[in-house]
Specification:
alpha+beta; Fructose-1,6-Bisphosphatase, Chain A, domain 1; 5-stranded mixed β-sheet; 15 strands; globular; binds 2,5-anhydro-1,6-di-O-phosphono-D-glucitol; binds manganese (II) ion
């Protein structure tokens, strides 16, 4: 059984940059993930539960665990000498890592949603961490700027998530399929458990927050109606956890479409392009699926600001095409 480290070395040809730098990057991701995993597992017994009493930059109530995960990942990235800048959903501005000595290795930009689905923390429902990695745009002597973070999703060199569920699983892609590694907590080691994950050809799950139904556009309403009444060839089921990572993980394995559309109240949707949509879109495509905002491919969108929100759809190709057709026809 491969460990994550062994798998990276075995598949070194699939990563066009230095294997050592990727191992270092993963060393910080694994360390922080294990620390967050441990904290989550005892959350009812510690003080890391409930709201921190602060609002984050997203205008959302920050949970204590949001902040814990943010701090843990940032600290871990700072100490591996491969990351020169970080953007986090929990931080207003980019974090530039100043090193006394710049090395060729300090070339990666990391974007992170440290704790995804944080409204589920206090009620023992799966939550996650989402990460996205780019190469710094310019030569290594130049300082990192905001432009390094505003690259199109297609430029990601690594994307992934950790799901803290019935087990803790790290899922990633460097552009050669999607692979999942389950944490064996007794050894503290991630072992390959889900090689080459891909969407089943035919899906029957749709995931959307139906509480917003009245505020959906006609295209979305028509698609839901199609799933519930009109498609004679398929029997659909609705599943919605409210943690993107968990909803996506289930849909990628069992076959389903995830939709967070615009609503009357949120014309840009809710999910963040840089921390949530881009990495999940990268994984979606690597798993043979399609990710779109209803009109265009997510990975082709040029971000205009750090905390930008967009409508988000991802899933098996045929389901996403179908929904896009309804959007085109009824909006
Ligand atoms: P976060 O906890 O990082 O702020 O993300 C929450 C997101 C996402 O995980 C989830 O799919 C969505 O918000 C749920 O939103 P609703 O509660 O509006 O359905
Ligand atoms: Mn999130
Ligand atoms: Mn979050």
């Amino acid at each position: 059984m491969y460990t994550l480290g062994e798998f990276i070395i075995e598949n070194r040809d699939n990563f066009p940059y230095s294997t050592e730098s990727l191992l270092r990057l993963f060393s910080s991701i694994k360390l922080a993930a294990k620390s967050v995993h441990k904290e989550i597992n005892k959350v009812g017994l510690t003080k890391n539960i409930g709201s921190s009493g602060k609002m984050n930059i997203q205008g959302e109530n920050q949970q204590k665990l949001d902040f814990f995960a943010h701090k843990t990942f940032i600290e871990s990235f700072k100490h591996r000498n491969v990351v020169c800048g970080i953007a986090s959903e929990e931080s207003k501005d980019i974090i530039i890592i100043n090193k006394k000595k710049n090395t060729l290795n300090d070339q990666y930009i990391v974007l992170i949603d440290p704790l995804d689905g944080s409204s589920n923390i206090d009620v023992n429902v799966p939550i996650g961490t989402i990460f996205s990695v780019f190469k710094k745009n310019y030569s290594c002597e130049k300082k990192v700027t905001i432009n390094d973070f505003l690259q199109k999703g297609i430029k990601q060199i690594l994307a992934g998530y950790i799901i803290y569920g019935s087990s803790t699983i790290l899922v990633y892609s460097v552009g050669n399929g999607v692979h999942g590694f389950t944490l064996d907590p007794s050894f503290g080691t991630f072992y390959l458990s889900h090689p080459y994950i891909s969407f089943p050809k035919k899906g029957n799950i749709y995931s959307i927050n139906n509480g917003n139904y009245e505020k959906f556009s006609n295209g979305i309403k028509k698609f839901i109606e199609f799933c519930q009444k009109k498609d004679k060839n398929n029997l659909y089921t609705s599943r919605y956890i409210g943690s993107l990572v968990s909803d996506f993980h289930r849909n990628m394995i069992h076959g389903g479409i995830y939709i967070y559309p615009k609503t009357e109240l949120s014309p840009n949707g809710k999910l963040r392009l840089l921390y949530e949509c881009n990495p999940i879109a990268f994984l979606t495509e690597q798993a043979g699926g399609k990710a779109s905002n209803g009109y265009e491919r997510i990975l082709d969108i040029k971000p205009c600001k750090l905390h930008q929100r967009i409508p988000f759809i991802c899933g098996p190709k045929n389901m996403v095409f179908k929904l896009e057709k309804f959007i085109k026809e009824y909006e």
